[in-house]
Amino acid sequence: MNYDHRFHAGNFADVHKHVVLIALLERLSEKPAPWFYLDTHAGAGLYELDRLPQDPPPEFRRGFEILWQATPIDPLLARYRALVASDNPSGCLTRYPGSPLLARRLSRPHDRLAFVEVVPQRQAELKRHLGRRPGVHHRDGFEALLALTPPTERRGLVFIDPPYEQVSEADRLVETLPRACARFPQGVFLAWYPWADANWTNGLKRRLSRIPRISFLDWLSPPRDGLWGSGLALVNVPHGLPERLDRLQPELRSLFRDRLGTTEWRTTWATEGDRDTPARAPRGPKR
Fold first, then answer.
1. Which residues have C-beta within 8 Å of that of residue 198, sequence separation ≥ 6?
2. Is residue 222 reached through a cis peptide bond, with omega within 30 degrees of 0 on the bond before it?
3. Beta strands 214-220 and 229-235, pairing class
């Protein structure tokens, strides 16, 4: 893929990944103990939608703008809309916050966040948008995934959102994710992947399916040229999350039907027994 998030900010894939991200962070905050958040491909953090070329129409027109123009009924969708509204005090949708700003706003004073970005310009933009908030790292995201885990906190979420501009990125995800899960067995891991070529995506999912306690959440529109579906691989599903996401799917499908066509949420959850038992690091050889 040739992917620059400035041009894709707020598209339907962002809606998919950010709704799930918010649900996970809210679930973590239900307990008082601190949590750790790691964003391995953080990007610029905030995107100026009013500066995008208008021909063809930017992707947020068929993405978050649909929620912006609606009055969501589901509390999770309403919370998502309110978080984006905080960056648009004029009432016009001109800016869209990425996952770093969403996570920062959902964090509590005793939670800890780390943001990783390898592109120097994007890292500088991210620092500017986060202000004095510490925890911005200029390094490779997959290298940081292993270097920054396990955290001192016993609970947390790792968000892996590569651009897939290089063929090796899928291979590195398949290689690195199970190692990180073993290092941080109580952690929740969320990794995004695109649906642009069904054979490629199905092959990636087959390779990831070897990871214990992994679930797949796909939001698919009718196939077309370019990105037509968004996928999330989720390791260590928190209790109650499947039911929570099931409740909002009808509203999302209804809201997006006019601009995306008939969409489908296709979920493959890890079995209940697997979900209740976190991954364990492999034991070494007996001595």
1. 223
2. no
3. antiparallel
As a whole number of angstroms, the distance between CA 95 and CA 102 comes to 13
| 218 is known as an active-site residue | no
Question: In the structure encoding, which two tokens stand for residue 67, read together?
Answer: 């929620």
Q: Give the pLDDT mean for 194-204.
A: 97
With contact defined as beta carbons under 8 Å apart, do 24 and 238 qualify?
yes
- Tell me the pLDDT tens digit for each residue of 36-85: 999 999 999 999 999 888 878 899 999 999 999 999 999 999 999 999 99
Q: Phi and psi (nearest 5°) for 209?
A: -65, -10
What does each C-alpha distance from 179 to 152, 172, 282 come to in angstroms?
17, 11, 10
Architecture of 11-45+99-275 per CATH? Answer: 3-Layer(aba) Sandwich (3.40)
Residue 133 backbone zone (phi > 0: left; psi -120 to 50: alpha; other: beta):
beta
CA angle 140, 146, 148 (to 5 degrees): 85
DSSP 19: H
Location of structure tokens 């949590």: 35
The rounded percent of the chain whose pLDDT value lies above 90 is 85
* List 39, 161, 274, 276, catalytic entry: 161
| 3-7, 93-97, 277-281: the lowest-pLDDT one | 277-281
| Tokens standing for residue 217 | 């959440």
Reported as a single tens digit per residue, the pLDDT across 230-273 is 999 999 999 999 999 999 999 999 999 999 999 999 999 997 55
